[in-house]
Amino acid sequence: MKTGIDISSHQGAVNWGKVVADFAILRAGWSWYDGGMNIDKRFLQNVAGAREVGVPWGAYLYAYDRTPAAARVSAERLADLLDQFQLPYPVAYDFEDTQYLGTGRESNTAICKAFLETLQGRGYYVMLYTYTNFAKGYLDMARLAAYDLWIADYTGQVGWPGEYGIWQYSGSGRAPGVAGQVDLDRAYRDYPAIIRAAGLNGYGRRPLPPDCAALRQENQTLRDRLAAQEKQLDSAQGRLAEIQRIAEG
Predict the structure, then answer these.
(1) How do residues 4-33 score in pLDDT, each as one tens digit?
(2) Within a 10 A sphere around the Cβ of 157, how many other Cβ atoms?
(3) In whole angstroms, what is the distance from residue 193 CA to residue 247 CA?
(4) Which residues contact 121 (CB under 8 A, 6 or more apart)?
(5) Helices 105-121, 68-82: crossing angle, 10 deg rounding
(6) Rounded Cα–Cα distance for residues 244 and 30 (Å)
């Protein structure tokens, strides 16, 4: 068994030189309702910190996807981000948002399956993150049995009766190097050995050179900026045309 932490920008700046965890799962960001993702503002900083001090790490994406189609897009965007790295620990889909309490077991399961299937197809060791009551009441876990489970349960024991690979046993723990509260986890499988042996999470290919990864990110930023500018230009042209029609009338 290994003990670890999971980290997002909510923890602020982590002093990785003081972290003593066996592993860390880092929030890569969160998905959009219609597919895509925002990157956690401290994700790349946390990746660099974990790698510098030799803490094995994985990643997770918090889910807002409303359809399987959206989930597939989000999975692709996450894979695009992670393709520059080698991750010793799994990549998880954090499926717990309150919007899913009213969408039904079948719909929720289809969204999860679409995301996990797509990301797995990109060469990643994937897992589903949720909490015990959600797994019991809002997902068809039999349809997701092919995927590893990271289960959250803060009652002192795991109430989920099925198999799981990681147990998040506290949401208010303390850990060296982290200011304030942090989630605490226990991993029951040797994920680094499993992932390397299977050639997953970047171990079956050469990682992108850092400069290529940076250029790809810069290119995407420029494309997003251009799209926003084009939208503003279209709006301005529409207003100008309306003014001209009024003036001519």
Answers:
(1) 999 999 999 999 999 999 999 999 999 999
(2) 9
(3) 73
(4) none
(5) 30
(6) 44
